[in-house]
Amino acid sequence: MHSEPRYGQTNILVYLGICSLMGSLTVVSIKAIGIAIKLTLEGIIQLAYPQTWVFVAVAVVLVIIQLNYLNKVGCLQNCPENPNRKKGTIVDVELDDEDEDEDEDENEDLVRTSLGENQ
């Protein structure tokens, strides 16, 4: 998270790395919550232990952090208003395709009018 302000806006791997790290910690927390649920169903109530609540809080916080960084990754790639977005991404290709379709329509109209004048 230290290099996120400096390199995050230009390198997608920073955000993906942070998200992956948070994901691995989330797995550990969810595993602990699953064990607590299993023990509670077996009759050993785990809600009285503070560790259970710590793991629930950690899991919630880590999931929110993951969603935040995944949103940053999505915006880094697909937001046209991002000044640091690299050219040639999916958004640019889609915009170029729309321009080509308009150009093709104009060319077809020109061909039709020129053929109509010759006949």
TrEMBL record:
GO CC, one annotated term: early endosome
Keyword terms of this UniProt record: Cell membrane, Endosome, Ion transport, Magnesium, Membrane, Transmembrane, Transmembrane helix, Transport
Transmembrane parts of this sequence: 12-41, 53-70
Membrane topology: Multi-pass membrane protein
Keyword hit for Acetylation: no
GO molecular function: magnesium ion transmembrane transporter activity
Ranges of biased composition (kind: Acidic residues): 93-108
InterPro entries: Mg_trans_NIPA
Superkingdom assignment: Eukaryota
Keyword presence, 4Fe-4S: no
Compartmental location: Cell membrane; Early endosome; Membrane
Pfam families: Mg_trans_NIPA
Region named Disordered: 80-119
Task of the protein: Acts as a Mg(2+) transporter. Can also transport other divalent cations such as Fe(2+), Sr(2+), Ba(2+), Mn(2+) and Co(2+) but to a much less extent than Mg(2+).
Family recorded in the similarity comment: Belongs to the NIPA (TC 2.A.7) family.
Subunit structure, as described in the record: Homodimer.
Designated name of the protein: Probable magnesium transporter
